[in-house]
Amino acid sequence: MPLSAALETERRIVREISAIVVAIGGVAFGLVLVLVRGILAPIRGLLSGISSIGVGDYDVRVPVLSRDELGELAESFNAMSAQLARTTVSKEYVEGVLENMRDLLLVTDSAGRVKTANHAAAEALGGAVVGRPLAELLSSDDGFAAPKAARDAEVALLAKDGGRIPALLSSAPLRDREGRPQGWIVVAKDITERKRDEEALVRAKLAAEASSRELEAFSYSVAHDLRAPLRAVDGFSQILLDGYSDKLDDHGKDYLRRVRAGSRRMGQLIDDLLNLSRITRSVLKLEDVDLSAIVEELAGELKRSDPKRSVEFAVEPGVVVRGDPNLLRVALVNLMSNAWKYTGKKPSARIEFGRRPGPGTTLYVRDDGAGFDMAFANKLFHPFSRLHSASEFEGTGIGLAIVQRVVGRHRGNIRGEGVPGRGATFEFTLWEENA
Amino acid sequence: MTERKVILLVEDNPDDEKLILMALQKGNITNEIVVARDGQEALEKLLGAPGKPPITPTVVLLDLHLPKIDGLEVLKKLRGSDKTKHLPVVMLTSSDEEGDRVRSYDLGANSYVCKPVDFGAFAGAVNQLGLYWLLLNRPAP
After folding, report:
1. Rounded to the nearest 5°, which phi and psi values hold at B38?
2. What is the ipTM score, two decimals?
3. CATH homologous superfamily for the domain A284-430
4. A230 closest CB neighbour out of B95, B97, B117
5. What 3-state class would DSSP assign to A393?
6. Residue A229 to chain B, least CA–CA distance (Å)
7. What are A105-139's pLDDT values in tens digits?
8. Which of A72, A80, A306, A376 is a good FRET partner for A401, with 20 to 30 A between their CA atoms?
9. The domain made up of B24-57+66-136 is a member of CATH 3.40.50.2300
10. What burial class does residue A50 get, using C-beta atoms within 10 Å of its C-beta: 0-12 exposed, 13-18 middle, 19+ buried?
11. Hey, CA dihedral for A397, A389, A222, B103, is it positive or negative?
């Protein structure tokens, strides 16, 4: 083979090899391009997604670029971050809550030095709180020299401006995964307003007590100071009638009698008023009281007071209730003497006392006397208001007002039912749940 | 029969004083009645004062509300003195308050009578008081 031919062959081989190398290089370059596009880009996406989650952004999603293993990986990543977002509270969220809550929040290290304070704490305690020991920030009878677990301990927070803020403080230890103490979480609730309300309430109570004492002093002076001049009016009228009747004509004597009747009636009204206020003021002494026995006793007294009258008493035996014996007696005296009084114009009458069946304590006094018009029932229990004229039936109109106060002091209610000419029933409850 | 027995009436209200005197008169109680018109005067009469020897009444009718020294204070002072610790003292007052009654008995009152407004009742009460303390009651020696 001539040399030229051999050289030509060699050149051709070199060319072919070169072409193959170039082709291989081109294919390799293409492959690299494909690799970079198809593998590295999704991986880069995943990486940036992971770093987003690392800083607490669970809303990150990576694009799904292919339907291969990498695509699946991206989809799994997206599912995971969605799951994380659902189940994990983000740092911003927690910070948002802590910063915006009205209660003060402090986190301390295990020695009690403040590490974190929320906005409310910084505001109330005045700025630079971080780094200061908890004990410097509050004063308490319990002493918080060292942090300790507490629940609603009453403390005073020491504000920067020197003010003291009353607060309820709760604290609990913070521990790491192994249970080692890391510090304390302290929450304090500003109760300035509540304290103010409480103090207002105390002041109102004191004022009410003062005015009640004033009322008592007033009642007292009514008793003493008004009775004395009345006694003079009544006494000297009587002395005039006794010793000077020869110097007075019948008109004069009649006028003097009216003066006396008026003064005595006023004396009665003063006594009634005092009795009424005594009912309200007296201290309740509770015991088991046999109301049937009291009513029987009163019935006996009433019968003896006017033996000519024909009145039948029907008293249910064994009615025993819890209450103040003196006050309950006062109530029954008034109800029974009313029944007696308002049956006074009947040739024969019947007065009943008993207990209604059923839950709770409901008692009644019923008569078949004069009764009353239900149109005026709302006036029955007003002091000094009457449904009958004094000429018809005597009285000052204090009796039922007294009964109502007695019943009220036993957390009960009273109501009256009447039919003119047919009788009246007074029904009262004791110890009602919602009274 | 009760001629030498004296009643000391401690009463600042002239109307009440007059009514009490008339009631006693009406009940034929003719004993001497010495009147003191405030607590200080009552104490001077009972315990003595410079130039005034003390009197020893059979009974003292003592009002609660008195000028200068009130009735309860007078009573306390009387019970504190050997001379008057057994002296019968009847509180005669307009007040029917439980507190006044309790304080009076705590301080050693012998009786507590509320003055009724009704003159008939008042005269009756004063009479019975006079008769009881002047005739029936036997004082400490």
Report:
1. -155, 175
2. 0.77
3. Histidine kinase-like ATPase, C-terminal domain (3.30.565.10)
4. B117
5. coil
6. 8
7. 988 888 888 888 888 888 888 777 888 888 888 87
8. A306
9. yes
10. middle
11. negative
